[in-house]
Design goal:
The structure holds 2 protein chains of 2 kinds. Chain A has 3 domains: 235 residues, Rossmann fold (3-Layer(aba) Sandwich); 179 residues, Rossmann fold (3-Layer(aba) Sandwich), CATH 3.40.50; 73 residues, no CATH class. Chain A has a 6-stranded mixed sheet with strand order 6-7-8-3-9-10, sandwiched between helices. In chain A, strands 16-19-20-13-21-22 form a 6-stranded mixed sheet, with helices on both faces. A 4-stranded antiparallel sheet of chain A has the order 2-1-4-5, covered by helices on one side. Chain A is 32% helix and 25% strand. Chain A has 17 helices and 22 strands. By secondary structure, chain A is of the alpha/beta class. In chain A, helix 14 packs parallel to helix 15. Chain B is mostly helical. Chain B has a domain of 200 residues. Helices cover 70% and strands 3% of the residues of chain B. Chain B has 13 helices and 2 strands, in the order βαααααααααααααβ. A two-stranded antiparallel sheet of chain B has the order 1-2. The longest helix of chain B has 30 residues. Classes of the chains: A alpha/beta, B mainly alpha. At the A-B interface, helix 10, helix 11 and strand 18 of A face helix 8 and helix 9 of B.
């Protein structure tokens, strides 16, 4: 392994208005090493790589790739210098073949010969060399998520990437696929490539990197050799203080537990044709219980949640509420009225009306409530008083009750939604990725509130892609794959490995 | 070009308020070039234009007369656009409203319906509002049920309505005294609006338009329906999630918009023309789109914007009689002000930055 510097960032600073996203960040990556870029959401990781890749122009600082200065704001120059980027959200055309996706944009429009043959040869070679086997003629739309990611990586390699940047690459993978990816990355560095691995998951950082750079509020706060640090230290560096994550205390089933929702053979068909989105799901959530749904994104969780928050009607099967098996309502408003609290996955575009003021979003689920409206008029004073109380109780920090809700931070927005939902003391809570994208402090707060609701007697259906969270909160875990519920068992009968296996569809014994 | 747009972290209220002013100033600057090109002195031309629009009692009365229907079609567009329902059919709704007004309040067989005047008046206004509302309900249902684009259906619907009106004017609503002119029977004179300014054409229909603008502003601000309209317009998906009756709000908004445009037709007939003719509106429905945009979709802004646009149209007429600049300059000003407004709104929300090399 050589000590050649592959990439050097010096004093990168980027401001958006009054926000300093990157504050004098200096970093270097050597040939043949994996550097993990660790930081919470909003710490400035994405901004930094966007600058590196030429999507943004830094206000100050310079970038050198293998000793050559990189002109700012030019993605083409970054590509030519050998910087390859694998985005969290794939940039592939589903209706084209793997080969076409890899070749697109690499060829001069003026050349008549297509050059497919040599391209194909090169793609197969690359695949063999790095253990990234994919059929060049397969349609990308028919590939699994893990395979699509391989195509993204191959695309970068095909273009001659010597520095590979992976932005949260494990978010969409099963634990087994993550292991595969890590093997691939180790192969890369053995071949002399440099890898920047962006993540906020500590165990992954510990597993794959040689060095770790920690960003907090736009500043580089620490650089460590992975071998000489540990997850606890990294967590503290990332957050800036010690954080205790709440977890469920006793997972023993309670004697007096009664069902709050009962799903039997619930099916949601796929309007595009093909396998149903939700396939004959049977599930019961009891009082005093958190049932966590584990699964790789896109395996029917969305369909399950949508029939439980009223956005969709099941095409088959029945949903019953409460111990007396009342029929399920047919509209979102009906679900709210039936005592179901709903926390949506997409808080910005589903949970609140971003353009409306904070106080209107606090009462928007209660427009039929005599407290807030009378004879078709909004009782603004009562609404504001309620919003003020809610903000205080759930620690929503905002400049005023009249700020546009979109200007709230993710954590404050989620606390507003959480408050609006929990204040009505729901018997069932459908929480879809409630901590996704939040900083650790807010994550701890949300978990605490969910556990408190469970203590109070609520039944909670928790959808999460974070196994750590699932094991911290769940009484029972249900694993989904391909629209089916593969297995439901108490948390004590699962291990992360067995959950990972079930996520691929293997039914555990 | 090394320039790019960056979203402002917080679009300032002052910037959004100043945007229409900046747009109008910019428009007048551009149009000054055209005036100079026509060989006329720019200063004098604009002086004549503004004099012809606001400079005398007569000029002002003409401007207000022209502003009345624009105010209503402007409100119709503003309320619909706010809910992201792009009603381009105010022209058709205006004509159908006018036709409905005459159908109820016209002198059929020389006498009309034998009802007390207040009842007849109420019937006339309700019929016009309903006609516009129901007409717009068709594209609204097509949109909410089948996802058909309302811009296409409302725009093309205008031509169907005009043909329908033409058929009525040549058929059962033909004025037998009109010597073959395509014109409807006259409105009952008892139903006509009084004069707002003596010996001019300005009529009390303006007060209706002003009242409706204020009412709309109050609805937006203080009622549950207003809150729902704003929410659905801003984010229909989230509105559905939090349990608002999205489809009902959409249909209600569309009917409100159509009703306002329909009333524009009735108020034109009862205030100015006394008949329905095929040229009673010089595109008020389309100009309403410009008015709404200039107003930033705010009901009270519509009042100001409609008077400005009407002033340009009226002022240009009188200016062109005095100086060798064709009155088409008014259309250019109105069109250019719409484009400038769109750019000005963009700059209120984004800032132009230069990439450092």
């Amino acid at each position: 392994m050589t000590d050649t510097l592959a990439l050097q960032l010096e004093g990168i600073t980027k401001r958006f208005g009054s926000l300093t996203a990157n504050d004098g960040v200096s970093l270097s990556v050597k040939q043949g090493e994996v550097l993990a870029l660790l930081g919470e959401n909003g710490a400035g990781k994405s901004t930094l790589v966007s600058i590196l890749f030429g999507h943004y122009v830094a206000d100050a600082g310079r970038i050198t790739v293998y000793g050559q200065a990189l002109p700012p704001g030019r993605p083409d120059a970054a590509l030519a210098a050998g910087v390859g980027m694998v985005h969290q959200h794939f940039t592939l055309a589903d209706n084209m073949s793997v080969l076409d996706n890899v070749m697109v944009g690499t060829q001069s429009l003026w050349r008549l010969a297509s050059g497919r043959k040599p391209a194909r040869q090169r793609l197969i070679e690359l695949g063999q060399r790095f253990g990234l086997g994919v059929d060049p003629d397969a349609r990308v739309g028919s590939l699994s998520v893990g395979e699509k990611q391989r195509v993204e990586i191959l695309k970068a390699l095909y273009r001659g990437a010597r520095i590979l940047i992976l932005d949260e690459p494990t978010a969409v993978l099963t634990p087994q696929e993550v292991d595969g990816l890590f093997t691939t990355l180790r192969g890369f560095v053995a071949e002399g490539l440099a890898v920047i691995f962006i993540s906020h998951k500590l165990d992954e950082v510990m597993a794959v990197s040689q060095r770790v750079a920690v960003l907090r509020q736009g500043k580089l706060v620490a650089e460590r050799d992975t071998a000489s640090t540990n997850a606890a230290e990294l967590a503290e560096l990332m957050v800036g203080r010690k954080v205790v994550m709440p977890r469920v205390q006793s997972a023993e089933p309670r004697a007096q537990a009664a069902p709050v929702v009962t799903l039997s053979q619930v099916t949601v068909s796929n309007s595009q044709g093909g396998a149903p989105l939700l396939d004959a799901a049977d599930l019961i959530v009891h009082t005093h219980e958190i049932v966590a749904i584990a699964g790789v994104a896109g395996n029917g969780q969305q369909a399950l949640v949508s029939v439980l928050n009223g956005l969709r009607q099941p095409d088959d099967g029945t949903i019953r509420l409460g111990p007396d098996h009342a029929a399920a309502p047919r509209t979102p408003a009906g679900w709210t009225a039936a005592g179901v609290g709903r926390i949506p996955e997409d808080r910005h575009h589903e949970g609140v009306i971003g353009d409306s003021p904070l106080w209107e979003n606090a009462i928007i689920e209660d427009l039929n409530d005599k407290r807030f409206t009378r004879l078709g008029m909004v009782r603004a004073q009562a609404g504001r008083a309620y919003a003020r109380e809610l903000s205080k109780q759930f620690d929503v920090r905002a400049a005023s009750l009249d700020v546009r809700t979109r200007s709230l931070s993710g954590g404050n927005m989620q606390k507003l939604i959480l408050g609006r939902t929990l204040a009505r003391q729901p018997r069932l809570i459908v929480a879809d990725q409630p901590t996704w994208g939040l900083d650790i402090g807010a994550v701890a707060y949300v978990r605490e509130q969910l556990l408190a609701a469970r203590e109070r007697g609520a039944g909670i259906l928790l959808v999460s892609e974070d196994l750590e969270e699932i094991f911290a909160l769940a009484d029972r875990i249900a694993v989904m794959c391909g629209g089916k519920i593969i297995a439901v068992k108490p948390v004590a009968e699962w291990t992360p490995a067995s959950v990972g296996l079930a996520m691929t569809g293997a039914v555990p014994a | 070009m090394n320039l790019y747009l960056e979203r402002r972290t917080e679009a300032s209220r002052t910037a959004l308020l100043l945007a229409p002013l900046a747009a109008i100033v910019f428009t007048l600057l551009i149009c000054a070039l055209l005036v100079a090109w026509a060989g006329a002195p720019v200063g004098q031309t604009y002086a004549l234009l503004f004099d012809g629009a606001f400079g005398s009692r007569f000029a002002l009365s003409e401007t207000l007369t022209r502003a009345t229907p624009l105010m209503l079609t402007g409100l119709a567009c503003a309320v619909a656009f706010r809910a992201r329902f792009y009603n381009i059919g105010a022209e058709g709704q205006l004509y159908l409203g006018a036709l409905a007004a005459v159908a109820v309040g016209g002198m059929h067989d020389g006498v009309g319906f034998d009802l007390p005047v207040p009842v007849l008046f109420a019937g006339m206004m309700i019929a016009a509002a309903l006609a516009g509302a129901l007409l717009l309900l068709i594209p609204a249902l097509l949109k909410t049920r089948l996802g058909v684009d309302e811009v296409v259906t409302t725009l093309l619907g205008n031509f169907i309505v005009l043909l329908f009106v033409s058929m009525m004017l040549d058929g059962i609503m033909k004025d037998p005294m009109a010597m073959g002119w395509p014109q409807s029977v006259a409105l009952n004179p008892d139903l006509e609006f009084g004069k707002l300014i003596a010996k001019t054409r300005a009529h009390t229909g303006l007060l209706w338009a002003l009242g409706l603008a204020v009412a709309l502003w109050l609805i937006n601000r203080y009622t549950v329906f207003g809150l729902q309209m704003r929410a659905v317009g801003a984010n229909a998906h989230a509105s559905r999630f939090v349990g608002l009756p999205v489809t009902r709000v959409m249909l209600g908004t569309a009917m409100l918009s159509g009703a306002l445009a329909g009333l524009a037709g009735a108020i034109e007939v009862a205030g100015r023309t006394s008949y329905v003719t095929l040229d009673m509106s010089p595109g008020y429905g389309y100009t309403g789109v410009v008015v709404a945009m200039l107003a930033g979709l705010h009901p009270l802004g519509v009042v100001v914007a409609s008077i400005f646009v009407a002033g340009m149209l009226v002022g240009a007429d009188s200016m062109s009689r005095a100086i060798a600049v064709p009155n088409y300059i008014a259309d250019v000003i109105v069109a250019a002000s719409l484009l400038s407004m769109l750019v000005a709104t963009l700059f209120a929300q984004y800032r132009l930055r230069r990439k450092q090399a």
